[in-house]
Amino acid sequence: MTMSRLAGAAALAFVPVAAAATGILRSAGLPATSAGPAEVAAFYAGQPISVGIASALAPLAWLLLVLFGAGAVGRLRPAEAAQGEAWSLVGLAGIVMQNVLFAGSVAAQIALLAGAPAGGGLWQLHNALFSLNGIALAIAMLGFSISGLRTGTLAGWHVTVGLVAATLQLISSALTPVSLSGGPAGFALVGLVGFLLWLVWLVTFGVVLLREPTPDGRRYRGASPSTTSAASSA
Length: 234
Prior knowledge:
Elements: H1 3-27, H2 37-46, H3 48-82, H4 87-113, H5 122-151, H6 156-174, H7 176-180, H8 186-210, H9 225-233
Helix pairs in contact: 1-3, 1-8, 3-4, 3-5, 4-5, 5-6, 5-8, 6-8
């Protein structure tokens, strides 16, 4: 299996892994961000199996994202290097940043599971890192989307989805201090829509990576030869 196809498979696999981890925590009754220390402590004391399984899935999700990012760079980099650009590296930096922030969030969750006091700011740290994670996703989508557009690798609608999702994730993350201090509930909706669009963008990118370039040199079936030629000669 080529690196590109491995990366595509990793992108597709990430979605069910992330959905499973989120679904397990939600079904177990994960407290709201505004929950008090007593409620948080009761949840982690009463749901050790659910929290443990969800936490165990996190490293797999990080590995899948790294494989996706590396494969995307491998697919995009040759064409953009000829143009003197490095947008795919910006996208990869976003993936790395995402894993670091989310690792911090999961580490806080594991500490709470191990009995760390919920009233010591650990729950707030968990929520802040989880929310700021959107900045990393925005950087990843921005870099890979622009690179995909410039090299003719991604369809126009796909790039648009990525840029819209990146904007929503950036706005949501920028509003983290307001959200965590009891801001309007609508702020959370911004982040949710951005996250769902991120999943659509990622799955579609995975399909692109699974397909080899077409014989006439086009990098996706919806690209016109003129578009690809222009990108290659830019």
